Amino acid sequence: MNPLKFIALLLVSSSVIFGCDPDEMEQGDLMNITYQPESYTFDLPAHFPKMEIPTNNPMTNQGILLGRHLFYDPILSADSTMSCSSCHLPELNFTDGKAFSKGIDGLNGTRSSMSLINIGFVQAGLFWDGRAKTLEDQALFPVEDPIELHNTWPNVINKLKRHVVYPKLFRQAFGINDRQEITKELAAKAIAQFERTLVSKDSKFDRIQAGKESYSDLELLGYGLFFDDDPDLPDTECGHCHNIPMTSSDDFFNNGLSEAATLDDFKDLGRGKITGSKSDNGKFRAPTLRNIKYSAPYMHDGRFATIDDVIAHYKSGAKSSPTKDPLLHKLDIEDHHIQALKAFIDTFTDTLFYKNPEFKNPFK
């Protein structure tokens, strides 16, 4: 049997498969397991930026393997019913297809689940409001969130220490000498390593950048609209927030979803709640457009069901508020412009990404 499949079979019932009490284990109980981490190397296209990897969390095959299992394992939740993947499904662009994600107690969150596609390139902060500085920080939040996995890290770590397989995986990934050295920080590092591998790089857009394909006439028209680089076409302002090649931005914007008379009138303060600056109220991180067709509904509150709804919002000029982005204005675009925009945005679709077996649930 494939050794990775064997590990997955052992882990699949991780909520009930435990060894002895970790307090009864001798110091150095994992030292008989070989620690030989293998470096993981990214194969990125020439038009991609370099991914910045923390010096204290280098990418290894063993760390990624551990992170992938933790990402898909419901052992992280209080009742062992949900995992990180419950809100981040590969076939839905690592979202959950809902306006508001629901946790183990059936309670709805306040925002839509963000895509994790190319998440390793984000530098300005994770989540819609940027409250987590790094992927390692971000991985710590859902476990103890009362609406999400509603657990405690001490409880999770105790289960991981008692588990029959996870101590071995932690040893192979991080070189710990005994199971008492398993920590939430190491678990978060492993999850972050796996998430950094979620790279989309084989869309039509990428193949065009590599000189392997060409735009159709309709896509080329959409390109001109998207980037405002043709004086004979109306400006749509898309490219200011959705920069290539990631089709996102390391910045936060108020894209006119909510009308507000003053800086204090936003129902969701967004970035402002994190920074404490009222000038950030109503601003949210610009998400990627890669595989956007698979991650409906759209916006931080999932208010738009389709791409057509999104374009209609921007065509209208959006709603007025003190922090509304100055680039937002009524768009002088016709139906054929909209079709061209959609055609160009569709060149960001990467079917190989969501079909990649290395990104899928290892327990299935």
Which architecture of the domain at 204-352 per CATH?
Answer: Orthogonal Bundle
Backbone shape = globular
CATH evolutionary superfamily of the domain at 204-352: Cytochrome c-like domain
- Looking across the biggest beta sheet, what order are the strands in? 1-2
Structure description:
The protein has a two-stranded antiparallel ribbon with strand order 1-2. It has 13 helices and two strands. The mean pLDDT is 92. The chain has a domain at 204-352: Cytochrome c-like domain (Cytochrome Bc1 Complex, Chain D, domain 2). It has 364 residues and is an all-alpha fold. The two termini are 15 Å apart.
Helices and strands in order, then pairings?
Blueprint lengths: L2 H9 L49 H12 L62 H4 L2 H4 L8 H10 L3 H9 L9 H13 L7 H6 L7 H11 L24 E2 L17 H5 L8 E2 L21 H9 L19 H11 L5 H5 L9
Antiparallel strand pairs: 1-2
Helix pairs in contact: 2-6, 2-7, 9-12
What are the defining features of this structure?
364 residues, mainly alpha, Cytochrome Bc1 Complex, Chain D, domain 2
Short synopsis of the structure:
This protein is mainly α and 364 residues long.
